[in-house]
Structure formats: C-alpha cells, structure tokens
Amino acid sequence: MTDTPTLVGELVYLTGITEAARRHLRQGQLLDLTSLDERCATLCTRLESVTGADREMLRAAFLALVAELNLLEAELKASRDATMSEINAVTQRRRAAGAYGHAGLNAGARGR
C-alpha cells in the first residue's frame, strides 16, 4: 500500500518548485537545482512501486511535473545558448581589439 496523498503532495510541490525555478530563470537569477534533482529522483523511485488504482490517481500529477520539467529544461538550454552567444561575441571583440592593437604596435615599430 502506498501513501498516495503524500505522493500527490510531493508531485504538486515539485511542480510548483519547477514553475518557480522557471520564473527565477526568466528574471536572470542563478539557480541551484540540486535539491530539485534529488527530490525528483527519490520520488521516481517511490513511484516505481505504485500499482493499480493508485498509479492512475498519480498519473495526472506526474504528467504535470514532467511537463514543467521539460519546459525548464528547454528554458535552461535557451539560456545557456544565449550566454554562449554573448561569450562568443565578447571573445570576438577582444580578439579584434587585440589584433588591431597588435597591428598598430607593429606599424609604429616599422615607422621608426
């Protein structure tokens, strides 16, 4: 016998945490998802043993959590890609500035 109300509560709680993480990410805040990851792993282990009618009762809440986690993953990837683009742009500007400065130094040395 499983404690279905506790499992539903955990699913709803983790869905809310995931929604909050998405909001924080959109606000540009840093996220530490370690506890979310650990709690999801623990919950999934507990859900593996659920059968019958209890399993059906938990399905909707589980699917809601999975949907939120998928959205969070997509938003994290988009944020990572945007950050990498910004880093690449800065790197290119630094290289260009360095090359321009190096060329100017070489031109000055030849003019002597």
UniProtKB/TrEMBL annotation:
Entry annotated with the keyword Cytoplasm: yes
Location relative to the cell: Cytoplasm, Cytosol
Keywords: Bacterial flagellum biogenesis, Chaperone, Cytoplasm
Main location: cytoplasm
InterPro entries (alphabetical): FliT (IPR008622)
Protein name in UniProt: Flagellar protein FliT
